[in-house]
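Onboarding guide, step 5: your first structure request.
Type a short instruction followed by the sequence, for example:

Predict the 3D structure of this protein.
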Amino acid sequence: MDTAETVEVTIPARAEFVSVARLTAAVVAGRQGFTYDEIEDLKIAVGEACTSLIVSGTTPGHPLRIRFRTEPNLLEIGIAARGAGIALHAPSRPAGGASDPEPPFDESRLGIFLMQCLVDAVETRRDDAFGTFELRLVKRHHEG
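The system replies with structure tokens like these:
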């Protein structure tokens, strides 16, 4: 594939439609020659991204818009929603003494952690003027 192509899908911001986004990611990545393991990683990352946006308080009645953009050896996925969005980094804690116990694992951040482990880049973009939020995932296909 020598030129960039774009596939766009719009789904209701409800958990029962996340599988549509996951399956679309699998089909697009498969057409691009990603390996089975890479496709499975993408499906998990896309599912976690959509779920995180839905749980974070996507404005009721507004769908998730998912854009899959392909280039040679690269797949970029943009998931846009209307609402608060998510933070990629946990809020920082005030510095304390050496005796401060390690903070407990925050299970609500597991989806973000998975996304960051399974794809090459995770970025967010917010447009306060329109009340929109976009989560961008990038996965590179490493031939070899």
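Each response can be followed by summary notes, for example: The first strand starts at residue 5 and ends at 11.
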